[in-house]
Design goal:
The chain is an alpha+beta fold. It folds into two domains: 74 residues, no CATH class; 191 residues, no CATH class. Strands 1-2-3-4 form a four-stranded antiparallel beta sheet. Helix 2 crosses helix 4 and helix 9 crosses helix 10. The longest helix is centred in the last third of the chain and has 20 residues.
Length: 365
């Protein structure tokens, strides 16, 4: 495909970029949006960009959202571009999600689970009605929301440091296959070419930073009949996961920080293990940066769907790894869609010539 290089117009391009800043700052009555405000008050958007950007830096995520004027795709693009300039300092150990400092934990598989259900922050149980009082919310009203919560009796002593995993209880009962690491080496999707077939850890890594809407659409197609995954959520967790790495001098394992993640483990219909012949429940797994339950659930469904395609043959789009994994990245998808705004003068002129010549041939006949 030919593109016509654009010569000149530098001043117009400069002014176009300036117009974006003018639009961002055009409301004279408001103060500049603080990046720390974006994280706290636009948490859902913050989590989407944190996940799709593939770089865990909460301050940079807020800056990307501010600079892109709330465009989640552009914001994720900023993070990807910045990440590509950073050196790799090392690799963390495999993280145990059972050690998460939880803020939310639910299971739809059992009413009572060891440690109990923890609803945490969620919109699951509220009516989607406008709170018109937020139109004219005052600073005092804003501050009172948190202060009223802080004044409540302290019950933190009753909260354990960690909770057992529901999947472990199913595995102890023999309903799930013994846990084993399938892939000895982690596939680095940022440095290695995506040549199919890909190992499962590469598939999960691609989905972890994929477009939330893209995963939702494909998982929904599977649930609606273009597939047969109708899972039960064994456990959905949201919390802060300690990151463990080796000390560069002593070589000892140390905690270097923590990341907010959402994790979902689902169980589905039973199947026969080809090696042992034992009947087990099938499973699916999803995890991503930030608080994004829709993405983690859809990721777990598609993980199960891809395994169905591998075991029984591909019959639906969501079971085809090449179709699914090549169409879920937000940056790739956006880049190809908006590239049509580039000059296509040569190719379009060719289309016009063919159309005109075809019309002439029709007139003669």
């Amino acid at each position: 495909m030919s593109y016509v290089p654009i010569k000149g117009g530098k001043e117009a391009i400069k002014q176009a970029a300036r117009m974006l800043e003018i639009l961002r700052c055009s409301d004279e009555e408001n103060l500049p949006l603080q990046t720390k405000t974006i994280k706290s008050q636009l948490g859902a958007l913050h989590s989407v960009v944190l996940s799709e950007g593939g770089l865990y830096d909460e301050d940079l995520v807020s800056l990307a959202i501010k600079q892109s004027r709330g465009d989640s795709l552009e914001a994720a693009y900023y993070l990807r571009a910045y990440r590509s300039t950073r050196p790799r300092l090392g690799t963390t150990k495999v993280l145990e999600t059972s050690s998460m400092r939880l803020i939310r934990r639910i299971s739809s598989a059992f009413k009572d689970i060891p440690g109990g259900q923890m609803l945490g922050p969620t919109t699951d149980y509220i009516q989607r009605l406008f709170n018109f009082a937020l139109h004219d919310e005052t600073k005092q009203e804003f501050d009172d929301v948190v202060s009223s919560w802080v004044k409540q009796p302290d019950s933190s002593a009753a909260i354990p440091d960690s909770y057992p995993k529901v999947m472990d209880f199913l595995r102890d009962e023999g309903l799930l296959p013994p846990f084993q690491i399938r892939d000895n080496e982690v596939f680095d999707i940022t440095r290695e070419p995506l040549v199919h077939p890909l190992p499962r850890n590469a598939q999960l890594a691609l989905m972890a930073r994929a477009d939330t809407g893209g995963l939702l659409a494909l998982a929904y197609s599977n649930m609606r009949g273009y597939g047969d995954v109708h899972p039960t959520i064994a456990e959905l967790r949201v919390g802060y996961l300690p990151v463990i790495a080796k000390h560069p001098v002593t070589g000892e394992d140390i905690e270097i920080g923590e990341v907010l993640i959402t994790e979902c483990e689902v169980v589905a219909s039973h199947q026969i293990d080809p090696d042992s012949g034992q009947v087990y429940l099938s499973t699916g797994y999803g995890a991503c940066f930030g608080h994004n339950e829709t993405k983690a659930i859809c990721m777990a469904i598609l993980d199960r769907s891809l395994d169905n395609g591998r075991r029984h043959g591909v019959t639906h789009p969501s079971e085809d790894p090449e179709f699914l994994l090549n169409h879920i990245d937000s940056i790739d998808s956006m880049g190809f869609a908006i590239h049509y705004k580039m000059p296509h003068y040569v190719t379009f002129e060719s289309d016009l010539d063919r159309a005109r010549e075809t019309q002439k041939q029709q007139e003669k006949s």
